[in-house]
Amino acid sequence: MIEISSLNKKFGKLTVLEGLDLVIDSGGIFAVLGPNGSGKTTLIKSILGMVIPDKGEIKISGESVLKKWKYRNEINYLPQIANFPANLSVKELISMVKNLRPKEANDKALIERFGLEPFLDKKLGNLSGGTKQKVNIVLTFMFESELIILDEPTTGLDPISLIRLKEIIHEEKDKGKTILITTHIMSFVEEIADEIVFLLDGEIYFKGSSHELKERTGQRDLEHAIAHLI
Ligand code: ADP
Question: Which own/partner pairs from 16-21 qualify as long-range (CB within 8 Å, at least 24 positions apart)?
């Protein structure tokens, strides 16, 4: 369980998170939504202990994330911007990450699933954005983790890869994992998310199912429901 209480974060004069309270139960898929700049990435990075809040606290399984740095390595995190070393090949990067995390890795099945075999010897700097994103996905899911945080995993993916990603997310959910995801693709959210967490003005503006959100706004599709929520 993730418990966030009275979280505040400012960057200079800009208040990004303000008194944010949120509880995320273990197990299930949670879509973190909100307009650009609403603080989704800041919230995610705070959960990871990569952003230090000005006030407030985040606990995972009852322990503060800032006191327990080891969590950072226990969470499967897909960053929005993957700064891969351009001169490394895909294969070299995967081995490097495997060496950093002495856990059993399931990279081969994922490489196959995303059709990455022909790219294994290619330099990361020469790959298209979509192919880099598939590498990002392989790196994220190749280890087992109770908590999986995906910041815009759908970016640049072709329709088949989107289906593969959806399958993998569902499989993780079926194993009892907790998945936090940000994305701009509402059909994706509708298909996979158990709950939507909507951020606005530094706070949680709505938390509930897409069905509840549609009922509350009187809209039939999620895109319009979100637009009517604000
Ligand atoms: P979102 O993910 O919802 O688009 P972010 O959390 O990335 O929002 O950013 C929220 C706001 O905080 C934006 O205005 C962004 O420019 C600003 N911001 C984020 N990180 C930093 C930083 N390290 N330094 C200064 N401003 C930042």
Answer: 16/42, 16/202, 17/42, 17/43, 17/46, 17/53, 17/56, 17/202, 17/203, 18/201, 18/202, 18/203, 19/56, 19/202, 19/203, 20/56, 20/199, 20/202, 20/203, 20/204, 21/204
Using the mean position of ligand 1's atoms as its centre, give its distance from the Cα of residue 42 in Å: 6
pTM: 0.93
- ipTM for the whole complex: 0.98
Please give the distance, rounded to the nearest whole angstrom, from the Cα atom of residue 14 to the centre of ligand 1.
Answer: 9
Q: What is the pLDDT of residues 112-137, one digit of tens each?
A: 999 999 999 999 999 999 999 999 99
Nearest atom in ligand 1 to the alpha carbon of residue 35 is 3
